């Protein structure tokens, strides 16, 4: 089942093209990695998928009654976010805000969801710890638990392993893999770690201001774009 589809989508800033003519689909159970150099348009595309930026051409279509606010989103962290003075539980529970409607207080079901996702991510013992006192890897797991509170279908992860050491990065990839395989969560991940992305993902979208490749990770390794980006060919 198709959850997300882009048809000839283009985005611009103040009339200047940022990324053009993207056409791809994300189906239930997929693990799509979006790769490309800095300035390639990856962050712009993320904003478009979240309906934070309107395309100047083409359309972004959501399937299976998916709404943009039902996409669990793990953003790149800023220094201000890293220093956020709230408990782990409070940060995770805030992922349920999109479900509150006109209610002022979180429901029992929402609190249970937060606790369940903390258990899945192995951060229940950190419940009362201040978020800003955690390590980088612990903070990423807290934010991932928060993103899970917003969705049962699809996660959009923006550079989830940036700044993490190799061991912690490996653990994060394992957690994401388990969410897909065991919890049946569809994954869309933006990454500079192209080797890790190709190793982990089922599909690759390579952009460089335009679409360079979309298809399976296996086919990407064999493609001209993949060979160049992975260091196996010449430009």
Helix and strand arrangement:
Elements: E1 2-13, E2 16-27, E3 31-35, H1 42-49, E4 57-62, E5 71-74, H2 79-82, H3 88-93, H4 108-120, H5 136-149, E6 154-158, H6 166-183, E7 186-190, H7 194-200, E8 203-207, E9 211-216, H8 217-222, H9 224-229
Parallel strand pairs: 3-7, 3-8, 5-6, 6-7
Antiparallel strand pairs: 1-2, 1-4, 8-9
Q: Strand fraction band?
A: 25-35%
Q: What would you call the shape? A: globular
Strand order of the largest sheet: 5-6-7-3-8-9
Helix percentage range: 25-40%
Give helix and strand order, one letter per element, not per position. EEEHEEHHHHEHEHEEHH
Broad structural category: alpha/beta
Structural Rg? 18 Å
Overall pLDDT confidence: 90
Largest beta sheet, briefly?
6 strands, mixed
Terminal Cα separation, in Å? 36 Å
Low-confidence stretches: none
Number of strands: 9
Number of helices: 9
Features:
Metal_Ion_Import_ABC, 9 helices, single chain, alpha/beta, 235 residues, three-stranded antiparallel β-sheet, six-stranded mixed β-sheet
Describe, in plain words, how this protein is organized in 3D.
- A hairpin with a 2-residue loop joins β1 and β2 (16-27).
- 35% of the residues are buried.
- The model has no long low-confidence stretch (mean pLDDT 90).
- This protein has a domain at 79-152.
- The chain has a six-stranded mixed sheet with strand order 5-6-7-3-8-9, with helices on both faces.
- The protein is globular and about 50 Å long.
- With 235 residues, it is α/β, with parallel strands linked by helices.
- The chain has helices at residues 42-49, 79-82, 88-93, 108-120, 136-149, 166-183, 194-200, 217-222, 224-229, and strands spanning 2-13, 16-27, 31-35, 57-62, 71-74, 154-158, 186-190, 203-207, 211-216.
- Helices cover 35% and strands 26% of the residues.
- Keywords: ATP-binding, Nucleotide-binding, Transport.
- GO terms for molecular function: ATP binding; ATP hydrolysis activity.
- Belongs to the ABC transporter superfamily.
- This is ATP-binding cassette domain-containing protein.
